Amino acid sequence: MSALALLGAFGTLLGAGYGFLTLLARKETQLSLTEQIAFSWLLGTGAVSLLLWIFGLFVHGVLLPGLVSIICLSLGLVGWRRMVPRPLRRKPNLFEIFLGIIVFLEIAIVFYLSFVHTLGWDGLLNWEIKAHYAFANGGVIPATYFSDSGRAFSHPEYPLAIPFTELWLYLWLGEADQFWAKTIFPIFYVIGTFLVVALGKRFTGKTWNGLLMAAFLFFVPQITVEVGSAIAGYADFPLSIFYLATIGCLFCATEPKNDAFFRLYAACLALLPWVKRDGLILWIVAAACGVFVILRTKRSSRHFLALFPGLLIICGWRFYLSAMHAPQAADFLPMNLETFSSHLDRILPLFSAVLAEFHNLPTWSLFWFVVAVGVAYLLGQMRNPGTPVLLNALFVPIVLYLLIYVFSSWPNYLEHVGLSISRLLLHVAPVGFLITLLAVSRRRVKSPAPVNERGVTCTMAVSERTPVVELA
Amino acid sequence: MTVRFSYGRIAHVLLWGGLAVASLGISIPKIYSGVTQYPLRPTGPLHTCDSYLKFATGASGASKDLISIFQSMTASKRIIIFTRKDDAFSSGLGMTTAYLASPHLVRLFEISGTHPDNELSKMNPDELAAVVFCRVNRPNWLPAGKVIGSGLEVVSTSEKKVRR
Predict the structure, then answer these.
(1) For A337-366, what is each residue's pLDDT tens digit?
(2) E strand or H helix at A461, and its extent?
């Protein structure tokens, strides 16, 4: 019974996502199966959680999941009728099959790890708690939860993408079940590997590059076994996957006329602040990168509308919180110039703390060292608009996160850093994989030239034409 | 098809191959210990709460007991939870209890030491559904409540009034 309910929950979620994908990609772009699954999941979780929240303002009880299910099925039907074309398949070579098996085994281990471990501390008390309370209250978080100062520890102000995806499972299962809620997180790991494989193919024109990087995703302890990893039920890893999709799509959209990927970028961008509060910083950085790409590739000004959905979500959520009288987060001091100037002495210790985190081998292994080598490779290719996008998407959030701690209200702000910095760096880690991918392939990325949109690689103008292999 | 080798290409392969091997060498022991550290746990709707409560109090399946205790109380009244400052177990126990106490409003009191007499004496018992002590001693003048494992006690105030 649980298996059927889970199938229903995930099926409707993927259906809704696929419907949105077909509306965004249209029939003008070929997307591999891995890309279609990955974007369907990301758009599906975003859409279902937003629908539950918005409809929950007006209805609750059986009507709420009923309405959302009808919309999901309708979107699935739209997707069925407007199917996104897939590129031709070719037989994978032995090396690709070997890497595919490795990636498959790693995914199996991540699922196993997720079931062996309980939800992490934040996974239970910041995220799942909202799903649990909403389920007990007919699909809507009770108003008293937001105003109850006794539950301020659970951060009522955090956005709802992850808790309401868990809620969607609960509504299908008919009970709030912390065990099944964990299934969401290894799926995000699967989506992460799919995106790395697919973007690897698009960036370099070679499938094995993407498969190799996807295989290495598993070997960063912060991604697989550490606190806040893909198995702990925290929002950090899902946020990092949304960010990977956003930046990956933007890189592909640096090709002139590749509007399908620009629309996908806009959709993923909008969902960043809906996954986690820190997503606002990633939204600012990714939006700035988007503005840079629009200007650099001389796109029409209507492309600036890509920022609008994200702004709508940010403002809508702020307005909702103030209407519900939700308490303000107590972890940070008021962010103004006065506080900043009076805490400037923190910058050097903060910088040292972040540097120390970079060579924290038990948590990151050699990941950041490898990324540094990759960055050195890319520095000579700054003329391509995709390169500054990737480098800024990696570095600027780290700098902004560092500056945020200047406003920490903790008596020992370095303890605050120590508890959260590895999870904040996790947000940008998948972008580090994209940089490494380009460096390993030694792709010399030239200035983008106009290409046929029905193509399969975003650097096709300079890449060798090879058929796509799908990780099916 | 001919494959052209150059010093640059060889250096490139050696660099990335070396980095990959070194990364694996550092990561594999950590990942291996992460994978083999824990056995499969029993599943269940409240399995994370149960695990936390078992870890902190030693009691198995305590979540259901706590929920049924809280459900037997008037929902409109608040639950007071006492935890100890600088005691992570106590703090965790308090927050897990607060999680399970829904739909009651809760108030967490973090106290220095283990005796909450001062704080309790200032409260109006008519407004409270229960007082929960997380690794904090119940004052002697308060009637005994339901003890869960070691370190967690729930005193319902709907039947017995707190002395003022």
Answers:
(1) 888 888 899 999 999 999 999 999 999 999
(2) none
Q: pLDDT tens, B115-128?
A: 888 888 888 888 88
CA-nearest residue to B50 within chain A is: A118
Please state, as a whole number, how many other Cβ atoms lie within 10 Å of the Cβ of residue A339. 14
Sheet with B152-156, edge to edge strand ranges: B106-111, B78-84, B128-134, B152-156, B146-148
Q: Are A68 and A179 in contact (CB under 8 A)?
A: no
Cα dihedral B60/B64/B65/B70 (nearest 10): 150
Closest chain B residue to A119, measured at CA: B48
pLDDT digits (tens, 9 = 90+) for A419-470: 899 999 999 999 999 999 999 987 655 444 344 444 445 543 333 323 333 2
The pTM (predicted TM-score) of the whole model is: 0.92
What's the pLDDT score for residue B4?
A: 62
What total number of domains does chain B contain? Answer: 2
Same domain, B63 and B81: yes
Domain of residue B30: give its range.
1-38
Q: Which amino acid is at A414?
A: L
- Residues 89 to 118 of A: which have CB under 8 A from any B CB? 109, 112-113, 115-118
Q: Would an 8 Å CB–CB cutoff place B108 in contact with chain A?
A: yes
- Are residues B29 and B98 located together in one domain of the fold? no
Cβ(A267)–Cβ(A150) below 8 Å: no
Average pLDDT value for residue range A166-176: 96
Tens digits of residue pLDDT in A425-436: 999 999 999 999
Can you tell me which residue has the tokens 């065990």?
Answer: A179
Report the alpha-carbon distance of residue B22 to residue B16 in Å, rounded: 10
Q: Chain A partners of B31 at a C-beta cutoff of 8 Å?
A: 218-219, 221, 224-225
C-alpha B100 chain-centroid distance: 11
CA angle A300/A303/A305 to nearest 5° reads: 135
Question: Are B28 and B58 in the same domain?
Answer: no
**Which residue among A153, A218, A370 places its CB closest to the CB of B95?**
A153
| Pairing of the two strands B152-156 and B146-148 | antiparallel
**Buried residues in A96-111 as b, exposed as e (16+ CB within 10 A):** beebbebbeebbebbb
Q: Do A13 and A48 form a contact (C-beta atoms < 8 A)? A: yes
In this structure, the answer to whether residues B103 and B140 fall within a common structural domain is yes
Give the chain A residue whose CA is nearest to the CA of B38: A116
- Residue A82, exposed/middle/buried by CB under 10 A (0-12, 13-18, 19+)? middle
Is B57 a domain residue?
yes
Give the C-alpha separation, A16 to B87, whole Å: 46
Q: Report the complex ipTM.
A: 0.90
Bridge pairing between strands B106-111 and B78-84: parallel
